[in-house]
Design a protein that fits this description.
Length: 284
């Protein structure tokens, strides 16, 4: 089930036959993958329907329809988020979306504004390199993003009431790397746009669509297939969203979140390098 090979498993305890012979009510568990909620609900209905159908056949065979139906009952238990409250899934996921939307927009607008008002000429006429210019523009917005991370973490814990069960240090380190990746993404958008309005719209659309559909907000990336899964694996929000939800609601520590941090680190040099490559040193 963890490797996405099966969606349902039936577990029959070792003393099932003995309890059935002695007249004790036996217990059987059905483990259902809930990553796709609609499919999980359908499978749950099939399990209950098959069980009730078997009880009906057993009652017809033994002639004890009423007695056979009485002892059987279903108890639904949720392995993750036992109280089944949406705030424990939505609360930690929203910061992951906001920390890519606003930092990327601010970063893109700050560079494009230089093009609009003409101050980017300073880059053209000085010996400053493109990497120095872009990284210098990026650092203040990384600091702003970290401040936003602290504010949103405070809101999630103290206002929405979602406790942080995992490692705050690992989550903060992941937020730092995530901030570098999202601002690097903003730099990349800025190299292809020439007006602030275009930069805002392009960054917002190109940020939110993959975040909503492929980063694990609606359903886990492991349940995606084909190109959708490839897109999810190549999107930085996927890894930070897993970190945020895992640290808040699953109690994951630094060792559990380290793979996501390493994956985010790989995005930073790639995004900045591509932005440096496409930013012209001289105006065309």
């Amino acid at each position: 089930m963890a490797s996405n090979d099966i969606s349902i498993a039936i577990e029959i305890p070792s003393g099932f036959g003995r309890d059935l012979t002695r007249g004790s009510p036996p217990e059987v568990s059905a483990w259902i993958d809930g990553s796709n909620t609609m499919r999980a609900s359908t499978m749950s209905g099939y399990v209950e329907g098959a069980h009730q159908s078997f009880l009906g056949q057993l009652a017809d065979t033994t002639g004890q329809r009423t007695q056979a139906r009485q002892p059987a009952k279903f108890e639904t238990r949720y392995l993750y988020n036992p109280s089944f409250e949406s705030i424990y899934a939505i609360g930690p996921s929203v910061p992951a979306m906001l920390l890519i939307l606003f930092p990327a927009i601010l970063m893109a607008v700050s560079v494009v504004r230089e093009k609009e008002i003409g101050t980017i000429v300073n880059l053209y006429v000085t010996p400053s390199r493109r990497a120095e210019f872009l990284v210098g523009k990026q650092l203040p917005y990384i600091a702003i993003t970290l401040a936003n991370f602290l504010i949103m973490t405070f809101v999630v814990i103290n206002i929405f009431g979602v406790p942080l069960k995992g490692s705050f240090f690992a989550l903060a380190l992941g937020a730092l790397v995530y901030a570098a990746a999202t601002t690097g993404y903003g730099l990349l958008i800025a190299t292809f746009t020439s007006s602030q309005v275009a930069a805002v719209f392009a960054t917002a659309i190109l940020s939110m669509m993959p975040t909503f559909l492929f980063s694990g907000f609606l359903q886990p990336v492991s349940s995606l297939e084909g190109g959708a899964k490839v897109m999810g694996m190549l999107w930085p929000t996927t890894y930070y969203m897993h970190m945020s939800v895992g640290a808040f609601t699953k109690g994951l520590g630094f060792a559990d979140l380290a793979p996501d941090i390493l994956a985010l680190m790989a995005f930073v040099p790639v995004l900045v390098a591509v932005a440096v490559f496409f930013l012209p040193k001289q105006e065309r």
